[in-house]
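G., before I forget:
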Amino acid sequence: MKKNRMPRILQQLFFLAGIVALWQIVCLVGVDLLHVWKSYAMPSPAGVFSSFCRLLGDGSLLQATGNSLLRGVTGYAISILLGGLLGFLMNHFPFLHNNLRPLVMGIQTLPSVCWVPFSILWFGLTQQAILFVVVMGSAFSMAMAADNAIANVPPIYKKAALTMGATQKQIYWKVILPASLPELISGLKQGWSFAWRALMSGEVMTTCIGLGQTLITGRNLADINQVMLVMIVIVLVGILIDRLIFRALEKHVYKKRGLL
Amino acid sequence: MPLTLSNVSKIFADSEHATLKHINLSIADGEFLCVVGKSGCGKSTLLNLIAGLEMPTEGEILLDGKPVTAPGADRVVMFQEHALYPWLNVMENVAFGMQLAGVPKKQREETALRYLELMQLSDYKDYYIHQLSGGMRQRVNLARSLTMDSRILLMDEPFSALDKQTSNRLRAELQDICMQTRRTVFFITHSVEEAVYLADRVVVLSAAKKGIAEIVPIELPRPRHVYDEAFIEYRRQILEEVQEDKG
Ligand SMILES: Nc1ncnc2c1ncn2[C@@H]1O[C@H](COP(=O)(O)OP(=O)(O)OP(=O)(O)O)[C@@H](O)[C@H]1O
Ligand SMILES: [Mg+2]
């Protein structure tokens, strides 16, 4: 396993390089030679790279990415708190489980853009409006994940703890929480991808500096390369967060339990 | 008499018939009581009632004169399997009950280690559960149950999921421990041999009667041997009793 590691990363890099090369060829042939696309409608690797240099040079790319990340993380943290609490309550009270859960299940399927009109009416074109969209876009899925994770804890874990004298509070903190952790982490991971997507729906509507805004500016300037650049950055941030945070977390939690 | 059941019946909410009817039973201090009977005759139900995991529909269960109303550390249960925590290592699992009770870390690790040594598992104290064999897991489970010093130890077919060789070794270890420490044990098994090997008295539970068919005191010296004539005779007698039961 370990031995194949370097070649695998190299392989992935070669694959990416291949895609970029192919993309460049498609641009050369499709735009310059055959005129299938107008040059303003088809980004090229070279164009994206020059956009990258320009936006990096004037500092706006880093600022936009930093702002978006901060906003995303803030909204995500609020979602974790609210969603976790809602999930816990839905699981704990049979009344809520029977009546609220189906509703949350339904709301969860709403695409986050659907919350944009509300957020503008309630908060105007502000930071809070974006956060509202992020929270609405991810908290409900987090609540469902938390509820499911708790419900899937094998009853025998609780029974064993009860007969060892555990209090209700100890059952929650020392049994249910650690037992549901692997599932909670999947929920957190999914919640993050929802939050990150919702963030973009929110950012494109306001004038707050961020990746969404940079993307819209690109559109307004008919600069397809800038649009493409922002899309790539959004994907890269997504991959980076997954690798750095969730992979590490999963590895730590799964290894102990023999789930790896 | 630390534990007495008087006139205990259990009818599950979603079933029409009683699972257990008018059970009268008491367990003496230091007694090893085994319960045998056909599958589905209500052995686990009886144990769950004593543990406080289920409530009797009728009758009363008293532990040292006080009615049982909820599960508690004075009636630790050792389940058949899958009751160890995969996120804790062996040491932490064994010390778990003491941790719940607020025993300081140093002290609970000392106690845990003592029982792990007794089970010949001290080399494995840092292992996680998935790294152990089935037999080792049940020894960890046993160690965890023993650390609790509970008033009565309830065991629901603890060795059933193991192969014969491993379960024979474990029951011999359990017998040694009980001879040394005089625990009060309520032990369920579907193996009559295991019951005769371990018990002071064997309770035969009947599915037909929904109650106790017979209580057989086993008057054999310990350690016991399965090939002794008297052992075989007890075994035959109880097996007949179990097989006659038309549940
Ligand atoms: N929670 C429950 N709700 C309804 N019926 C139950 C419940 N638990 C057990 N029963 C019923 O009670 C009867 C006795 O079950 P129990 O688990 O006590 O049997 P057992 O003697 O332990 O069997 P086995 O040897 O297979 O473990 C069965 O008919 C079962 O269907
Ligand atoms: Mg049973």
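The mean pLDDT of chain B is 93. The longest strand of chain B covers residues 3-10.

More on Monday.
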